[in-house]
Prior knowledge:
Elements: H1 3-13, H2 26-35, H3 39-52, E1 56-58, H4 66-71, H5 97-100, H6 135-145, H7 150-161, H8 173-184, H9 190-200, H10 213-227, H11 234-242, H12 244-248, H13 252-259, H14 263-274, H15 280-289, E2 298-303, E3 306-311, E4 319-321, H16 323-334, H17 339-379, H18 381-386, H19 397-404, H20 408-415, E5 419-422, E6 425-428, E7 436-438, E8 444-446, H21 447-459, H22 469-478, H23 485-494, H24 500-503
Parallel strand pairs: 2-5
Antiparallel strand pairs: 1-4, 2-3, 5-6, 7-8
Helix pairs in contact: 2-17, 6-7, 7-9, 10-11, 16-17, 17-19, 19-20, 22-23
Amino acid sequence: MPVGTDILVLMLNQRLQQKLLQKLSPQQILLMKLLQIPSMALEQRIKQEIEENPALELEEGSELPEAEQEETDYSDDGDYDEDEHDDYDESDDEFTFDDYIADDDDEIPDYKTSINNSSPDDTNYDIPFASSDSFQELLIQQLGYRKLDERKVKIGTYIIGNLDDSGYLSRPLDAMADDLLFGMNLKTNRKELAEVLAIIQEFDPPGVGARNLQECLMLQLIRLQSEELDKDYSLPIMIIDRFFNEFTKKHYDKIIKRAEITEEELKEALNEILKLNPKPGGSVSDSARENQYIIPDFIIHINDGELELSLSSRNMPELRVSKTYGEMLEMLAESKKSRSEKEALVFIKQKIDSAKWFIDAIQQRQNTLYGTMAAIMEYQRAYFLSGDETTLRPMILKDIAEVVGLDISTISRVANSKYVQTPFGTFLLKSFFSESMQMDDGEEVSTREIKKILSDCIEAEVKDKPLTDEQLTLILKDKGYNIARRTVAKYREQLNIPVARLRKEL
Length: 506
């Protein structure tokens, strides 16, 4: 083989790989996990750690929330001895483990003295929610009030189980008949399913069990007509029945012409239609969410024209290493080390290490949260003093990361799922981050400021002649915001504002 070929083969076989390996310690992984969870989840995480690690306990006088305190009460027989848990100075627990462990213990595997953490990207934590009857449960209760045979009860239960969160039945009846046959060995047909569905459509909330929006609105109007005999709903029913397509597209001129009605009559009918609920199932779900409260992680006050920042008390738990475990470690270290004592010493060392790592991680979490929020507060000082969204500065994760000297990913974890309470309301922290856009004079402004101006323009528009995206673009250009029409359309969609045609009112 020629020499040149050998060199070529050698070059091809050579792999120049540059690998950047970042090995995270258990403490770093723990800190990242704690940073990304909100205050409510932090309480659950602390409770879990206390239950799993007996070497970790709350400081004297500190308490878990009342519901959690009941679960962690270990005095089943009422003979709890408070003298065994007297307050102590944590500095007494600063042990040098190398002095207590013999040289032959150096061969203890690392896994016995390390925390078993999963990936830092995993978000395995529980968030408590208010408990209430689900939408399907309420419908099944109403089904039980009807005098139906067992067969129809089974069919009705199955239909209710196929309703979505909005209360609609999206599955075809023929497909459901096949499912009942193969899944429950229940032979039925489209006619019988329609009969049971008609019964369900009589349940509360009105409109439930509809297969589309048109049927949903019709069910509600028919219910209103049967309950309010002194009021005439024939025109709203006719509009939904015969002119539903024109109604959804707001082609009011066509409805007036084809239905042979006046503009005033149409306006009155539309007012009745707009009172209806397009998502009857959502009303039940929303009521269940009314008891859920946002607990802010940060609190900002204005005192004599100056901003004051504080962390929520839920972010500052008082934890310590158990005095009992410290005494046990000292006792085992001073005794002659049998095999069982060595195993006990390793176990206690592991638990104390884990407890100290957790306490340190909680403290680091507190410091990181406070430092990050302080930087954001200073960056957006004008907004937090006035509450005027137009004063918001463009701000990205990198801006804050450079101020506090932390990685962008760390700032992202802090901003995620955290809320700040201000004199002007409680807001999600990440909502203060926005991209920048340059004005005609060269000044950079936040895209949130542009969205606020766009929202104000649409709110102030003449309802029967709503502003188009082109007109909104011209208005913004007159104010110095030189942006394209497609950008205006994008911002409008982000604000959940429909196009001009769908905003038109009589």
